[in-house]
Design a protein that fits this description.
The chain is mainly α. Helices cover about 70% and strands about 0% of the residues.
Length: about 475
């Protein structure tokens, strides 16, 4: 299965790419990706192995609301598309880094880029781990061989063409995953359809599970307002085609990606119907229960989904290092391309180091848990990007919106990792394990937005009050 996957992506990958193709996704003739190609690429870059795994586990925990809630995160494409449209249409910026430097200053830009760097780092190990688990148990020889082979394959073709390679292979990976989804649904359907035509899993989804799932779905909708802005895999694609085509592509991506995730989450319902324990996860337990054929099928799904995200992460790392950190506004050069390729090597090596944490007692779970707070810690990005058009929005507005979310995210991490009681239960909204997270996201986003607006209005009034009085005399 791995050999077949490798052959497909290597045949689909461009063998060469100039700087504009490497960083901007353009073809050798200089054409930008079309609506369908960019939409499919954006969608599949988010249908990562970790996402498929999470959607299945959430559905097993909360019923269909778990899958619907996770699919709701794809609405972030629409939010980002609208914000970037105005950034490009009226600010004429060629990246989020360029926009932030112009609007909020160099310090704000650096802080944002540090967050982006952490995100890129986490995307490497989290996807190679999920894919490698299909080759052997964690820490086994087949597991480590799979980590090395999968990372090496992706690094090889990503270095050749950068973002262009990522976009083109994404199209092949999208077709592959769509076909695999159809087969998956056909295989799982008999276990879900009862004699009366109703879902066999329906009686197993209690009212309490549904309420917990609805709480999670609302949390996803709230985080959608900020989540997409800190993912360079998404935002880099927002600058590679004309603004109006980009918006159409991102709306398409939201529909395609959300549908794929919702479709694969059905495996969680199957686990409920057949009483299959989610060990180590639904994405592994269900195919193991169904035999070698389904194991190979899910193996292909995880290879394609992890590969699409990993090559996009490598391409974004190249751009982050060679272009964004310097806030480059000029046309990319071959020197930029060389610098970007070196960065791919470095992130491929360093990004997999957290996998070694399994040999350190207690560190492995802590590393994984720490990544789950990112959606909370970056809640302040919503007003920073969505309300940037307000007169008076500036450097102070950026900081008063950003830091409360960071502090809340750290408090949530300390609660999860150290067992400290830092967040009052009174802030919780809804029910279930995500009630506290929903509460602090709602109240925290309200706080960040209020502080942003208050500072923006105060700045506007201050500058308006010290404007010089115009004289009616003519010199």
């Amino acid at each position: 299965m791995f050999a077949a996957y490798a052959l497909i992506v290597l045949r689909a990958t461009p063998r060469a790419s100039g700087p504009m193709g490497f960083f901007g996704g353009h073809s050798l003739s200089g054409r930008s990706p079309g609506v369908w190609l960019l939409g499919a690429s954006a969608a599949i870059s988010w249908v990562m192995a970790k996402s498929v795994d999470n959607a299945m586990n959430l559905t097993a925990a909360f019923g269909y609301w778990g899958g619907i809630g996770y699919a709701s995160y794809w609405l972030a494409f629409v939010v980002v598309a609208v914000a970037v449209y105005f950034i490009r249409r009226y600010g004429h910026d060629n990246s989020l880094a360029a926009f932030l430097e112009r609007k909020y200053g160099a310090t704000a830009t650096r802080l944002f880029l540090v967050v982006i760097g952490i995100r890129l780092f986490n995307e490497i190990w989290s996807n190679t781990k999920v894919a490698a688990l299909y080759f052997g148990s964690e820490g086994s020889t087949p597991y480590w061989v799979a980590v090395i082979a999968f990372t090496g394959l992706t690094l090889y073709y990503a270095r050749r063409g950068g973002l262009r390679s990522s976009i083109v292979t994404d199209a092949a990976q999208m077709v592959l995953i769509a076909l695999l989804l159809v087969v998956t649904l056909v295989v799982l359907a008999p276990g879900l359809i009862g004699a009366t035509g109703t879902g066999a899993a329906a009686p197993l989804v209690s009212a309490e599970m549904r309420m917990h799932g609805i709480t999670f779905a609302v949390l996803a909708l709230v985080q959608t307002l900020s989540y997409g802005f800190h993912d360079p895999v998404l935002t880099d694609r927002a600058f590679v085609s004309p603004p109006h085509k980009m918006v159409a592509s991102f709306v398409l991506a939201a529909l395609l990606g959300g549908a794929l995730i919702a479709g694969f989450s059905v495996a969680g319902l199957y686990a409920l119907a057949e009483n299959i324990p989610a060990t180590p996860s639904v994405a592994v337990a269900v195919p193991m229960a169904l035999g070698l054929g389904m194991m190979l099928l899910f193996n292909a799904v995880m290879l394609a989904s992890a590969g699409s995200t990993l090559d996009s992460t490598l391409a974004s790392t190249a751009k982050f290092t060679a272009r964004d950190w310097r806030v480059a506004r000029a046309v990319p050069t071959h020197k930029d391309q060389q610098r970007g390729r070196r960065a791919m090597w470095i992130i491929a090596l360093l990004g997999n180091l957290p996998l070694l944490s399994l040999y350190i007692k207690g560190v492995g779970p802590a590393v994984i848990a720490a990544t789950t707070i990112s959606g909370t810690a970056i809640m302040g990005l919503a007003p920073i990007f969505l309300l940037a058009w307000l007169p008076g929005a500036g450097r102070l507005s950026f900081h008063v919106a950003l830091w409360p979310g960071v502090v809340i995210g750290i408090a949530l991490a300390l609660e999860r990792l150290a067992g400290l009681d830092l967040i009052p239960d009174a802030l919780s909204l809804g029910s279930g394990p995500y009630a506290q997270t929903l509460g602090i996201n709602v109240w925290g986003l309200a706080l960040c937005t209020t502080l942003f607006l208050a500072t923006t209005i105060a700045t506007r009034l201050r500058w308006g009050s010290i404007q010089p009085v115009r004289s009616n005399s003519v010199s």
